[in-house]
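User: I've been trying to design a sequence by hand for this structure and keep getting stuck. Would you show me what you'd pick, starting by listing the structure so we're on the same page?

Assistant: Good idea, let's start from the same input. This is the structure you sent:
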């Protein structure tokens, strides 16, 4: 292929990308964002439940396996480890919400949870539906409907802290 052929290919690629970007821009301008400000309905099992009775029977071993499966791909779980797609969960129980140093929390979480702490109950509410807890959050978890499963996870998360000296 000579120089003219390469120029034709380059022009075709540049024009294609330009047309796609223009179409995307026009579509974003014409089609309004219809995301509701709040959920229209709550699915059964997604309501806030008192987690204390479930914590009494929580299985920490099952919680450890579930944290590795559900949380481990996005969150670090060891002291001093860097953040992943989500903040490090080491020491999360008892920590103020949206306070991990250096992690860029979403405005939704910073504003909806200002001044609150990650207690067992707030963690349960978060895990049941992050979007209901902080509408507009970047967390992609749909929610865990089973309070016993949430209790297992929270029981394990309680163990992720520095040992007393």
């Amino acid at each position: 292929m000579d120089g003219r052929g390469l120029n034709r290919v380059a022009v075709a690629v540049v024009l294609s990308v330009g047309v796609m970007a223009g179409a995307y821009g026009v579509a974003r301008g014409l089609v309004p964002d219809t995301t509701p400000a709040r959920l229209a309905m709550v699915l059964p099992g997604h309501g806030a439940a008192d987690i204390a009775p479930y914590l009494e029977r929580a299985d920490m071993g099952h919680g450890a396996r579930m944290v590795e499966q559900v949380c481990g791909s996005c969150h670090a779980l060891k002291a001093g480890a860097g953040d992943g797609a989500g903040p490090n969960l080491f020491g999360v129980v008892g920590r103020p919400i949206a306070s991990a140093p250096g992690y860029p929390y979403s405005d939704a979480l910073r504003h909806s949870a200002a001044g609150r702490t990650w207690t067992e109950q707030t963690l349960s509410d978060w895990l049941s539906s992050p979007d209901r807890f902080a509408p507009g959050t970047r967390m992609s978890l749909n929610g865990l409907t089973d309070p016993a499963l949430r209790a297992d996870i929270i029981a394990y998360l309680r163990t992720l802290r520095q040992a007393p000296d």
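That's my pick for every position. To get oriented when you compare it with your attempt: Helices lie at 3-30, 52-56, 60-71, 107-112, 120-128, 130-133, 147-159. The chain is about 45% helix and 0% strand.
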